[in-house]
Design a protein that fits this description.
The protein is mainly beta and about 120 residues long. It contains one helix and eleven strands; from the N terminus they run E-E-E-H-E-E-E-E-E-E-E-E.
């Protein structure tokens, strides 16, 4: 899961309406534009008591396999994936509210070189 973001001070902005604290991985980066990378298992439909970013996306596909749920969703024109423990059914076409563990995010410069993060 990747997207272009902008870091300004202690804030990471995906858009004007989707922003969150820089977190452990982004806190020490200089201000500027980055590509953020987030593993599917760091995006979940339950906050799990962690402070993170809240995002939403239109559900494209859901897969429930035993004790895990995989949600493919549209995030600003890109397909992103959430993978989490538990059964989390969503209807295709619905809007899912999801939580991102921002301390686990990776940051890359615009030429895709790793610059920090990953917790």
């Amino acid at each position: 899961n990747t997207a272009e973001v902008e870091k300004k001070g202690d804030v990471i902005a995906l858009s004007d309406s989707v922003q969150w604290p820089a977190g452990r991985g982004g806190r020490n980066l200089p201000d500027g534009r980055y590509i953020i990378g987030i593993r599917p298992h760091h995006i979940t439909p339950a906050a799990n008591g962690k402070i993170g970013a809240t995002i939403s996306g239109r559900v494209l596909v859901t897969e429930i396999s035993g004790s895990e749920s995989v949600i493919h969703f549209d995030m600003r024109g890109q397909t992103w994936v959430s993978q989490s423990h538990g059964v989390h059914p969503f209807d295709v076409g619905s809007v899912a509210k999801l939580y991102v563990d921002i301390d686990r995010a990776f940051f890359f410069d615009r030429s895709h070189r790793f610059t920090g993060g990953g917790g």
